[in-house]
Amino acid sequence: MRETTTVGDELTDTKTAGAPSTSGTVGNTPGKKAKKEREASLWSDAVSDLRRNPIFLIGSALVLLLVVLSAVPQWFTPDSPFTAGACQLQDSLKKPSADHWFGFDVQGCDVYTRTVWAARNSIIVGIVTTALVIVVGGALGLLAGWVGGLVDSLLSRFTEIFFAIPLLLGGMLIMSGLGKGNAWTVSIVLATLGWPQIFRIMRSSVLQNKNNDYVVAARALGAGTWRITMRHILPNAIAPVIVVGAISLGVYIGAEAALSYLGIGVQPPGISWGLMVSDASVRWLQAPHVLLFPAAALSITVLAFIMVGDAVRDALDPKLR
């Protein structure tokens, strides 16, 4: 006598009454394939959560728009603030109209055109600075956490020197000594002062992961140091670095605006939102539109990157699930 047992979507015949089984495996019903379940990982779960997070979707849409705006401003305005005759003094401080949505500034330049073109320098500073601090701070933090010992001690003491220098104050001091600045010099200066934060986060993350079971198993199987570092340590330690980098990107854009406002960041003929706010601060009571639009663009940009960073943090932090 045979007893039929249902297993999922498949039927398996098993013998009863102590009769020996003819097979140690569960057979498949003809015409059907066994389904393989994919193990969920931290990254796949994070991507799934982000797709359903409205804050991330809104922030990402704004970030994408800003990146396109900075890359091809010609798509958003046919005019250029760098062409001869772009500014006419007879148009000075004219209010917004149907032909000129944001009005004109003190020099008679179209505020909308300048606001669009100013996005390029601000976005360049944010992206380049963030990339530099992640590469430099991440690499040094990975080295210090994985090697440990004297290397870790020396790098940690060296990092503390930079931690003692406030970002904005140190940027003001260095940019004042350099004289004329542009988006690239501002990025290098901010990255020079900003990498220690990423260093500490990466070092701490590596120290938490280096003694986990999968690392011990990989070492026991004969995996080399480079393979263990790149295949096991780095992918599991990089998550908090990405989170902090996404949030810091908006901070660096705000820092560039502060330096440009003080006259030691991006210099004319370059354009940035901070420089526009600085120029408008003298006449903002008489013509508030000159200050309102570049300041709003700056605020929206910083907010968009912070929204993305917060959403990524929530998705990657298991404690917040």
Automatic annotation (TrEMBL):
Keyword Cell membrane: yes
Membrane topology (UniProt): Multi-pass membrane protein
Transmembrane segments: 55-76, 123-146, 158-178, 184-202, 237-255, 291-312
Biased composition (Polar residues): 19-28
Location of region: Disordered: 1-38
Cross-referenced InterPro entries: BP-dependent_transpt_permease, MetI-like, MetI-like_sf, OppC_N
Broad class of the protein's primary localization: membrane
One matching Pfam family: BPD_transp_1
Entry's localization field: Cell membrane
Keywords: Cell membrane, Membrane, Transmembrane, Transmembrane helix, Transport
GO annotation (BP), single: transmembrane transport
GO cellular component, one term: plasma membrane
Top-level taxon of origin: Bacteria
Family: Belongs to the binding-protein-dependent transport system permease family.
PANTHER family: ABC TRANSPORTER PERMEASE PROTEIN, OLIGOPEPTIDE TRANSPORT SYSTEM PERMEASE PROTEIN APPC
Record protein name field: Oligopeptide transport system permease protein OppC
